[in-house]
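Attaching the record inline, Q. Sequence:
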Amino acid sequence: MTTILAFAFIMTILVFVHELGHFLAARYFGVGVEVFSVGFGPRLWSVRRSGIEYRISAIPFGGYVKMSGTASRREATAHDFDSKTRWQRFLILLAGPVMNIAFAFALAIAGLWVGIEMPTAGGQTVIYRAAPVEAILLGGRAIAHSSAEILSTLGGLLTGAISSSHMIGPVGLAQIAGESSALGWRAMLAAMAFISLNLGICNLLPIPVLDGGHMVMLLVESVTRRDVPFGFRKALVGAGAVAMLFLLATTFYNDLGRLGWIGS
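Structure, as predicted:
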């Protein structure tokens, strides 16, 4: 139960951060927002302010910002997402992953400020606290190194150099969250930074259902100077959703295998 609660807590915060990026960028460019939801599924709580419904839903492992006129067939109005220029839509999509990466950076700095546990030659641990400027530099270095490792792993998975059995899914992430919460709040901060960075980078992948996939479509439209047909765009998103479900099933199988719940 502790593992589930820790994972739900971490994911709720990270989903909020991600969707907040989309929300703030949309509002900045004058796009109407209808719903800001943390979580999917049945609504648990909601409040309406200035025409926007802020909602907490039952399934915490996701969320969405429903913008006016998103991928709609009707004629766009001035406040619709599809009425904005391609570069504005691109930045709105980019804002979510960037917020997760920036949040991971902020957590790394905060962790260095409050102190991290470091082993000594005698087998004991001491708390090392970095000065503010040093924390920023070390935090930036840590995020850059971790980002390079994530990208290297993704590249290895695509080329086949790394087996898909190395991929971690929701169960594996929940295990990391549970183990870190048992070790204390410092470990919890590190786990949250790790998951946030992965979430931000993976959302930039050119899979149609993800932010990165939609951004690629906007880049194609900018080069060809033609809109991707609505039907084709819808088909691509559907194919991306199927690919993500397959990926989720694969990582779920891997996680259960690592836990010894199924045969290797």
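The beta strands are 33-49, 52-67, 116-119, 125-128. The mean pLDDT is 87.

More tomorrow.
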